Amino acid sequence: MKLLFIGPPGAGKGTQAGKVAGRLGIPHVSTGDMFRDHVSRRTDLGRKVDSIMAAGDYVPDEITVAMLSDRISQEDARDGFILDGFPRTEAQVASLDRLIGEDGLDEVVVFEVDEDELTQRLLSRGRDDDDEETIRYRFKVYMEQTQPLIDIYEARGVTVYIDGIGEVDEVTEQILSRLEA
Ligand code: ADP
Predict the structure, then answer these.
(1) If you compute the radius of gyration of the chain from its CA atoms, what whole number of angstroms results?
(2) What is the pLDDT of residue 89?
(3) What number does the ligand 1 atom closest to the CA of 13 have?
Protein backbone atom coordinates (compact mmCIF):
# COMPACT_ATOMS: atom_id res chain seq x y z
CA MET A 1 0.00 0.00 0.00
CA LYS A 2 1.53 3.31 -1.12
CA LEU A 3 -0.05 6.34 0.47
CA LEU A 4 0.49 10.07 0.52
CA PHE A 5 -0.67 12.29 3.40
CA ILE A 6 -1.04 15.91 2.34
CA GLY A 7 -2.24 19.06 4.06
CA PRO A 8 -1.18 22.44 5.43
CA PRO A 9 1.49 22.87 8.10
CA GLY A 10 0.05 21.96 11.49
CA ALA A 11 -2.73 19.75 10.11
CA GLY A 12 -1.44 16.80 12.11
CA LYS A 13 -0.45 14.74 9.11
CA GLY A 14 2.95 13.85 10.57
CA THR A 15 1.40 12.48 13.78
CA GLN A 16 -1.26 10.60 11.84
CA ALA A 17 1.19 9.29 9.25
CA GLY A 18 3.29 7.81 12.07
CA LYS A 19 0.31 6.14 13.73
CA VAL A 20 -1.28 4.81 10.56
CA ALA A 21 2.09 3.53 9.29
CA GLY A 22 2.54 1.66 12.58
CA ARG A 23 -0.89 0.08 12.27
CA LEU A 24 -0.35 -0.93 8.63
CA GLY A 25 3.22 -2.13 9.22
CA ILE A 26 4.76 0.09 6.53
CA PRO A 27 7.40 2.83 6.94
CA HIS A 28 6.51 6.46 7.57
CA VAL A 29 8.60 8.47 5.14
CA SER A 30 8.72 12.11 6.25
CA THR A 31 11.04 14.38 4.28
CA GLY A 32 10.75 16.99 7.08
CA ASP A 33 11.94 14.43 9.68
CA MET A 34 14.74 13.29 7.37
CA PHE A 35 15.94 16.87 6.88
CA ARG A 36 15.73 17.60 10.63
CA ASP A 37 17.77 14.48 11.29
CA HIS A 38 20.47 15.69 8.88
CA VAL A 39 20.46 19.13 10.54
CA SER A 40 20.86 17.67 14.03
CA ARG A 41 23.66 15.34 12.88
CA ARG A 42 25.34 18.28 11.09
CA THR A 43 25.83 16.35 7.85
CA ASP A 44 26.75 18.17 4.61
CA LEU A 45 23.13 17.97 3.55
CA GLY A 46 22.02 19.26 6.96
CA ARG A 47 24.30 22.27 6.65
CA LYS A 48 22.82 23.05 3.24
CA VAL A 49 19.18 22.90 4.30
CA ASP A 50 19.33 24.36 7.82
CA SER A 51 18.82 28.02 6.96
CA ILE A 52 16.34 27.21 4.15
CA MET A 53 14.10 25.34 6.59
CA ALA A 54 14.43 27.94 9.33
CA ALA A 55 13.18 30.57 6.86
CA GLY A 56 10.16 28.43 5.93
CA ASP A 57 11.26 27.96 2.32
CA TYR A 58 11.23 24.70 0.40
CA VAL A 59 14.48 22.81 -0.03
CA PRO A 60 15.48 22.66 -3.74
CA ASP A 61 13.83 19.75 -5.58
CA GLU A 62 17.08 18.13 -6.67
CA ILE A 63 18.18 17.67 -3.05
CA THR A 64 14.75 16.52 -1.87
CA VAL A 65 14.12 14.12 -4.76
CA ALA A 66 17.55 12.46 -4.41
CA MET A 67 17.00 11.90 -0.69
CA LEU A 68 13.44 10.57 -1.17
CA SER A 69 14.40 8.31 -4.06
CA ASP A 70 17.12 6.78 -1.95
CA ARG A 71 14.73 6.20 0.94
CA ILE A 72 11.94 4.50 -0.96
CA SER A 73 14.36 2.20 -2.76
CA GLN A 74 15.28 0.61 0.58
CA GLU A 75 14.13 -2.91 1.38
CA ASP A 76 11.61 -1.99 4.07
CA ALA A 77 9.71 0.24 1.61
CA ARG A 78 9.26 -2.45 -1.02
CA ASP A 79 5.68 -3.31 -0.14
CA GLY A 80 4.53 0.19 0.64
CA PHE A 81 5.01 3.38 2.62
CA ILE A 82 3.30 6.55 3.74
CA LEU A 83 4.76 9.68 2.20
CA ASP A 84 4.47 12.73 4.44
CA GLY A 85 5.72 16.07 3.13
CA PHE A 86 6.60 14.81 -0.34
CA PRO A 87 5.62 15.69 -3.07
CA ARG A 88 5.21 19.38 -2.24
CA THR A 89 5.66 20.89 -5.72
CA GLU A 90 4.41 19.98 -9.20
CA ALA A 91 7.96 19.11 -10.20
CA GLN A 92 8.12 16.67 -7.28
CA VAL A 93 4.88 15.04 -8.48
CA ALA A 94 6.57 14.45 -11.85
CA SER A 95 9.61 12.99 -10.09
CA LEU A 96 7.47 10.68 -7.98
CA ASP A 97 5.60 9.58 -11.12
CA ARG A 98 8.94 8.59 -12.64
CA LEU A 99 9.89 6.66 -9.51
CA ILE A 100 6.68 4.70 -8.84
CA GLY A 101 4.52 5.32 -11.93
CA GLU A 102 1.58 7.67 -12.40
CA ASP A 103 -0.73 5.13 -10.78
CA GLY A 104 1.77 4.30 -8.04
CA LEU A 105 -0.15 5.85 -5.15
CA ASP A 106 -3.15 3.86 -3.91
CA GLU A 107 -4.66 6.72 -1.91
CA VAL A 108 -3.93 10.36 -1.14
CA VAL A 109 -5.22 11.39 2.29
CA VAL A 110 -6.01 15.11 2.29
CA PHE A 111 -6.15 16.86 5.69
CA GLU A 112 -8.63 19.68 6.00
CA VAL A 113 -8.18 21.98 9.01
CA ASP A 114 -9.34 25.52 9.60
CA GLU A 115 -6.56 28.12 9.41
CA ASP A 116 -7.04 29.65 12.90
CA GLU A 117 -6.83 26.22 14.49
CA LEU A 118 -3.66 25.56 12.50
CA THR A 119 -1.92 28.72 13.69
CA GLN A 120 -2.78 27.92 17.32
CA ARG A 121 -1.40 24.41 17.01
CA LEU A 122 1.82 25.53 15.38
CA LEU A 123 2.44 28.26 17.97
CA SER A 124 2.02 25.77 20.81
CA ARG A 125 4.35 23.25 19.12
CA GLY A 126 7.31 25.63 19.49
CA ARG A 127 9.61 24.14 16.83
CA ASP A 128 12.47 26.33 15.47
CA ASP A 129 10.57 27.21 12.31
CA ASP A 130 7.32 27.86 14.22
CA ASP A 131 7.43 31.58 15.11
CA GLU A 132 4.36 33.53 13.98
CA GLU A 133 5.92 35.25 11.00
CA THR A 134 7.47 32.04 9.67
CA ILE A 135 4.17 30.20 10.16
CA ARG A 136 2.34 32.77 8.05
CA TYR A 137 5.03 32.53 5.41
CA ARG A 138 4.88 28.71 5.37
CA PHE A 139 1.11 28.90 4.82
CA LYS A 140 1.62 31.20 1.88
CA VAL A 141 4.21 28.85 0.36
CA TYR A 142 1.87 25.89 0.98
CA MET A 143 -1.08 27.65 -0.67
CA GLU A 144 0.94 28.64 -3.71
CA GLN A 145 3.00 25.51 -4.27
CA THR A 146 1.43 22.51 -2.57
CA GLN A 147 -2.35 23.06 -2.40
CA PRO A 148 -2.58 22.79 -6.25
CA LEU A 149 -1.27 19.21 -6.05
CA ILE A 150 -4.58 18.14 -4.51
CA ASP A 151 -6.31 18.88 -7.85
CA ILE A 152 -3.82 16.66 -9.67
CA TYR A 153 -4.58 13.70 -7.40
CA GLU A 154 -8.30 14.52 -7.35
CA ALA A 155 -8.27 14.18 -11.15
CA ARG A 156 -6.61 10.79 -10.76
CA GLY A 157 -9.42 9.70 -8.46
CA VAL A 158 -7.30 8.72 -5.47
CA THR A 159 -8.15 11.42 -2.91
CA VAL A 160 -9.73 10.76 0.50
CA TYR A 161 -10.65 13.86 2.57
CA ILE A 162 -10.19 13.81 6.33
CA ASP A 163 -11.26 16.36 8.93
CA GLY A 164 -8.07 16.95 10.93
CA ILE A 165 -9.91 18.45 13.92
CA GLY A 166 -10.64 16.06 16.77
CA GLU A 167 -8.91 13.69 19.16
CA VAL A 168 -5.73 12.22 17.71
CA ASP A 169 -6.95 8.61 18.10
CA GLU A 170 -10.34 9.41 16.59
CA VAL A 171 -8.71 10.92 13.54
CA THR A 172 -6.50 7.81 13.20
CA GLU A 173 -9.54 5.51 13.30
CA GLN A 174 -11.34 7.70 10.79
CA ILE A 175 -8.39 7.45 8.39
CA LEU A 176 -8.08 3.67 8.79
CA SER A 177 -11.77 3.10 8.18
CA ARG A 178 -11.79 5.36 5.13
CA LEU A 179 -8.77 3.54 3.71
CA GLU A 180 -10.50 0.18 4.13
CA ALA A 181 -13.68 1.43 2.46
P1 ADP B 1 5.09 20.63 8.25
O2 ADP B 1 4.50 19.26 8.44
O3 ADP B 1 4.92 21.52 9.44
O4 ADP B 1 4.65 21.27 6.98
P5 ADP B 1 7.60 19.30 7.58
O6 ADP B 1 8.17 18.66 8.76
O7 ADP B 1 6.90 18.44 6.59
O8 ADP B 1 6.66 20.48 8.09
O9 ADP B 1 8.74 20.10 6.78
C10 ADP B 1 9.56 21.07 7.42
C11 ADP B 1 10.42 21.80 6.38
O12 ADP B 1 11.25 20.85 5.67
C13 ADP B 1 9.65 22.52 5.26
O14 ADP B 1 9.19 23.78 5.67
C15 ADP B 1 10.74 22.57 4.17
O16 ADP B 1 11.70 23.57 4.42
C17 ADP B 1 11.43 21.23 4.30
N18 ADP B 1 10.80 20.22 3.43
C19 ADP B 1 10.18 19.07 3.85
N20 ADP B 1 9.72 18.36 2.79
C21 ADP B 1 10.06 19.06 1.68
C22 ADP B 1 9.84 18.87 0.29
N23 ADP B 1 9.17 17.79 -0.19
N24 ADP B 1 10.34 19.78 -0.58
C25 ADP B 1 10.99 20.85 -0.13
N26 ADP B 1 11.22 21.12 1.17
C27 ADP B 1 10.75 20.24 2.07
Answers:
(1) 16
(2) 96
(3) 2
